[in-house]
Predict the structure.
Amino acid sequence: MPVSLDIDTTTPDLVLTGAETTATERVAALLGAGPDARVDEPAWVASARDRWEELPARLRRTLRSFRRDPGPGGALLVRGLPVTGDALGATPLADGSVQRTARVPAAVLMLAACGLGDPAAFRPEKTGALVQDVVPVPGREDFQGNAGSVLLTFHNENAFHPHRPDFVMLLCLRADPGGLAGLRTSCVREVLPLLDDATRAALHRPEFRTAPPPSFGSAAGSAEPHPVLTGAHDDPDLRVDMAATEPLTERAAAALEELRRLFERTARTARLEPGDLAIVDNRITVHGRTAFSPRFDGTDRWLQRTFVLADLRRSRAHRAGDGYVLADPAARDA
């Protein structure tokens, strides 16, 4: 059996200096000033876009470079971003918790989103908030989603959706006190050379169907058959959710099982600390999470999440008033 690469890979791609952290916090704090600093307001997002150029040059270069080429692993880790530490308060416990106020961490996420493309959200999921809390929720321990604490299987975010995110950003506000929770990733660029020709061909056939995640309920309607691999033969895009993608033929089932095995073989784990920003290229990389044991005492792991679309225009028919929130994915493009 090949040895798994599922190791702690918390070595960051960029570590901000103290001066860079302070400069980033200053920009984020300016965005949060005033009674009308509301993350979901288009005018506030526009102001975040305007202030993008005020971020430290190394941070801007790193994000722009990742947007152009996410590398063999399809994930980026930036360390040293401001999250204001003890001023955060207790980790939320409520299901569907979101951040509407432009506090420093939310502003940092939105600034980064404006460097990668445009922030986006989905109306059926957490009421369409642009910044969402990723926290364990009492009674949802077995949930295959961000509220759970069991092993979260590998998936492209919202793989069922015609306009799924191009990037998923996860900013750590508070680490898991038990040290068990880890972000797992696996990239098709590392898996592809390990696939035999028959498996690769099967993954390119439209013989798979992906259901919406539980967080969407029944809002997504019926799923159409689709391939798992699309685009360039030597550098394809990936569309799969190991908890929700159903193979429709025997050869599709065999191919999906082989893909599952290779995801595990090539998996990497990052245990995030406060101020760490992990960005996953959702077009080529699946992600998941190790199991952990929440305490539900206000000290649990707390991430905030924002989705990014590199080309917002493509989803125009799904967004009322040319805003940032996509409506029911069953809606048809004009």
About this structure: The chain has a mean pLDDT of 92. The chain has seven helices and 16 strands. Helices lie at 18-32, 42-51, 57-68, 104-116, 188-191, 197-203, 250-266.
